[in-house]
Amino acid sequence: NIYKYSLVFSNFGFLGNFVILGIFGNEGLFKYSMFTLIMTFLVNSWGICVLIPQSKKPTVRDLMKKILEQF
Questions:
Q1: Closest to 39 measured CA to CA, from 3, 71, 9
Q2: Which end of the chain is more exposed for a tag (fewer CB within 10 A), N or C?
Q3: What's CA 67's distance to the chain center, in Å?
Q4: Dihedral-angle region of residue 25 (phi above 0 means left; psi in -120 to 50 means alpha; beta otherwise)
Q5: Which parts of 1-71 fold into alpha helices (H)?
Q6: pLDDT tens across 20-66, in order?
Q7: Closest to 4 measured CA to CA, from 49, 64, 62
Q8: Higher-scoring residue by pLDDT: 63, 69
Q9: Residue 60 has what pLDDT?
Q10: pTM listed for this prediction
């Protein structure tokens, strides 16, 4: 499962903001931020489902509660 997760979600948020800002400017950074917002949501929803073993899978309600607790 860790291989499936790592193939779908790359490391997109660590230094990417500064690289995008330097190459594409403010407009590029805004577009990149919208992309990373969507990717962050997917990492915290589908990504968690992939990494949790089948025997310990939480319900959708539990997952949404955990996601909303982060904000």
A1: 9
A2: C
A3: 11
A4: left
A5: 2-8, 16-51, 60-69
A6: 899 999 999 999 888 888 888 877 777 777 777 767 767 778 878 88
A7: 49
A8: 69
A9: 75
A10: 0.53
Short-list 43, 34, 32, CA closest to 8: 43
Tokens 């955990």 found at? 66
Contact 63, 45 (CB under 8 A): yes
- What is the dihedral angle through the alpha carbons of 27, 22, 9, 63, rounded to the nearest 10 degrees? -60
Size (the chain), residues: 71
* Cα atoms found within 13 Å of the Cα of residue 30, Cβ hemisphere only: 3
Distances (CA, A) of 3 to 15, 39, 47, 57: 23, 17, 11, 18
Residue 11 Rama label (left phi>0; alpha psi -120 to 50; beta): beta
